[in-house]
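Title: [Solved] Small ribosomal subunit protein uS17 3D structure

Original question kept below for reference.
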Amino acid sequence: METATQKTRTASKRTLTGVVVSLKMAKTVVVAVTRLKMHPKYKKQYKVTKKFKAHNESGQFVLGDRVTIVESKPISKDKHWIVKI
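Solution (posted by the thread starter after getting help):
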């Protein structure tokens, strides 16, 4: 029998860019990500905003900062993102 070779998968982690909208939690920031979406029938573009909780170990950000967040393994119930410095 031959030994099974393991394939290493290097999946690129998703990155999103947004604006810090809340700093009220310890080591956590809330980032609002806005993207344009097109209506399927009328073909009009409209803005959709979604908020993500991201881990912020350093605490160096202030409200309104534009940050990049990277997907990671679950850190808590709601946190699955890390702020990229």
